[in-house]
From TrEMBL:
GO terms for molecular function: ATP binding. SMART domains: AAA. InterPro entries: AAA+_ATPase, ABC_transporter-like_ATP-bd, ABC_transporter-like_CS, ABC_transporter_ATP-binding, P-loop_NTPase. Residues 4-230 form the ABC transporter domain. It comes from Saccharibacillus alkalitolerans. It comes from the Bacteria. It holds the Pfam family ABC_tran. This is ABC transporter ATP-binding protein. Keywords: ATP-binding, Nucleotide-binding, Transport. PANTHER family: ABC TRANSPORTER ATP-BINDING PROTEIN, ABC TRANSPORTER ATP-BINDING PROTEIN NATA. Belongs to the ABC transporter superfamily. SUPFAM superfamilies: P-loop containing nucleoside triphosphate hydrolases.
Length: 299
């Protein structure tokens, strides 16, 4: 079942296309990455999914129901963390959580807030006005998890968090997925997607470029070779390395290139050479991401 289904979704602002003909489907129980640079249309798309912005055209379904108009029933099933969070600064973190719990008809002590605050190293007894951006993000995340939503929508959740807390957040989200939650995760930090997501959609200029399993984005059959030959000369032409993608001579006999398919043909081409050092790696998500963007620019 598709928890989020977006069909031909578009949004125009003053004659400019913020989102154009977008199609997405997010399946139950998956962590779905939504990636792109700042200004790509990620937040605009999320605001339309959350019924906070009206589409120019297109269709949105949440849990199989039409969601083009604000629906309290649907929102009760969703936890949402916007990219910019605003809180009552005179309250403590605990008071803010207690208010949120009451809004959902819950008692704060009956939720997992203590465990989550401990995991994220958040002091709930301090005033929110003293919180850093990172601590505000932590509090916002705990707030949107209080009612154990079926769908969690996160817009750039790790901005302002230090690397250790980012890892703890990712562990927390994996645990939520294990409990059956569906997570829609918007970010421009590609390493997070690689560690966390099942599928990923790439958006640029409001247009969807690609949707694939994370393993597919990480290169599939592509390998990146870095070879240091004996001697310091450029052997690109001699060995025909221009046949491969990104063939380049670096320095001190080091050459770098990438190739699709099995390793055998490449290794046979190199076998007659005196090799000092050879590394073969899969491209990172960032490598694939930048390659697709460059190809899109060329088109």
């Amino acid at each position: 079942m598709a928890i989020i289904q977006v069909e031909s979704l578009s949004k125009d602002y003053k004659g400019k296309h913020a989102v154009s003909d977008l199609n997405l489907d997010v399946r139950a129980g998956e962590i779905y990455g939504f990636i792109g640079p700042n200004g790509a249309g990620k937040s605009t798309t999320i605001r339309m999914i959350m019924q906070l912005a009206k589409p120019t055209s297109g269709r949105i379904l949440l849990f199989g129901q039409e969601a083009l108009r604000p629906s309290p029933e649907l929102r009760r099933r969703i936890g949402y963390l916007p990219s910019e969070i605003r809180l009552y600064e005179r309250w403590t973190g605990r008071e803010s959580l207690a208010f949120t719990a009451r809004a959902y008809g819950l008692k704060l002590d009956g939720t997992d807030f203590r465990e989550q605050a401990g995991m994220l190293d958040l002091d709930l007894d301090k005033k929110i006005k003293s919180y850093s951006l990172g601590n505000r993000k932590k509090l916002g995340l705990i707030q949107c998890l209080l009612h154990k939503p079926d769908l969690l929508i996160l817009d750039e959740p790790t901005s302002g968090l230090d690397p250790l807390i980012q890892r703890k957040l990712i562990d927390m989200l994996k645990r939520q997925r294990e409990d059956g939650m569906t997570i829609f995760f918007s970010t421009h930090v590609l390493s997070e997607v690689e560690r966390l997501c099942d599928r990923v959609a790439m958006i640029r200029g409001g247009r969807l470029l690609r949707v694939e399993n994370v393993e597919g984005f990480s290169g599939a059959r592509r390998h990146v070779f870095k070879v240091r030959f004996a001697g310091e000369e450029d052997r690109t032409r001699e060995l025909g390395l221009r046949e491969f993608d990104d063939g380049a001579f670096l320095k001190d006999g080091v050459h770098r290139f990438s190739a699709d398919g099995p390793l055998g043909p490449v290794l046979r081409k190199l076998s007659g050479c005196e090799i000092v050092e050879l590394t073969v790696e899969r491209p990172t998500l960032e490598d694939v991401f930048m390659r697709d963007y460059e190809q899109e620019e060329e088109r």
